[in-house]
Amino acid sequence: xxxxxxxxxxxxxxxxxxxxxxxxxxxxxxxxxxxxxxxxxxxxxxxxxxxxxxxxxxxxxxxxxxxxxxxxxxxxxxxxxxxxxxxxxxxxxxxxxxxxxxxxxxxxxxxxxxxxxxxxxxxxxxxxxxxxxxxxxxxxxxxxxxxxxxxxxxxxxxxxxxxxxxxxxxxxxxxxxxxxxxxxxxxxxxxxxxxxxxxxxxxxxxxxxxxxxxxxxxxxxxxxxxxxxxxxxxxxxxxxxxxxxxxxxxxxxxxxxxxxxxxxxxxxxxxxxxxxxxxxxxxxxxxxxxxxxxxxxxxxxxxxxxxxxxxxxxxxxxxxxxxxxxxxxxxxxxxxxxxxxxxxxxxxxxxxxxxx
Length: 356
Fold this sequence. Notes:
Layout: H1 10-52, H2 60-67, H3 75-108, H4 120-134, H5 143-161, H6 168-191, H7 195-206, H8 217-242, H9 245-250, H10 255-277, H11 283-295, H12 302-322, H13 330-351
Helix pairs in contact: 1-3, 1-12, 2-3, 3-8, 3-10, 3-11, 3-12, 4-5, 4-6, 4-7, 4-10, 5-6, 5-10, 8-10, 11-12, 12-13
């Protein structure tokens, strides 16, 4: 039987505190691992359903044979040339949006600070639409402009928000303002475009996986093979920054360089995802909060955020293709899902006095 807390020696009390903290961390890691495993199973099920079902149904066995190299008339073209590139694009773009949103929301400590709210994807959209409508580029070749636009918007937002350091509230307000300006640039480009160019640009800025091909996949997945591990490596600094800048500095974290690296990785992830699938609305915004609710507490949850983002995009694309009379772009479905969540978040923030 242990002695009352007031009668224990300091070393015993310290050992009990350390044991308690370790137990809490073990429970948190176990829950995060369970959530990630569950999301992986859901994602695998969605991938199988997406590959098998549609206007032309293919059995699971035939899908496996086609992936293994078998040539089945009709089915091979549908699965190999249409559904698999679309599926892989959705998985990669969703994961990238999810991790990017989680980085920004954790860094700024505000759920509104996702790339699609603070203007980074708006920068990608404005540059890509300008290239499509004013320079006559094919939407499939607009990716470099989208990436450049995202970086330019992020640099402008970061520069305007800088006052010796970057505060979260100022970054969000500046980002929303820049997003409004970039939205005007997009509208101006559309009004001066030919009808065919404008229609192509409208599909792209809605967020769609229709342009997914094997040839475009390396532009998405090669950067992700670098960016996703980089986000994992920077996760330790991000966890320290969650405690506050003073606490992070006390732990040996260099504050501003760490922020700059995290912002750079977050912008790169949002940029390559936008270049691959367009600015799919609200995926970056939704993935992080959903992942944190699933894992419990306010932890970082980068891996669950990536999985949630991939699940959202894959499920929304399947729903847009199968649940309506015509195929709807994935961005329409995510926009319908995300808008009520944004309103709920703003209403909740106002009730607790954080609504500005």
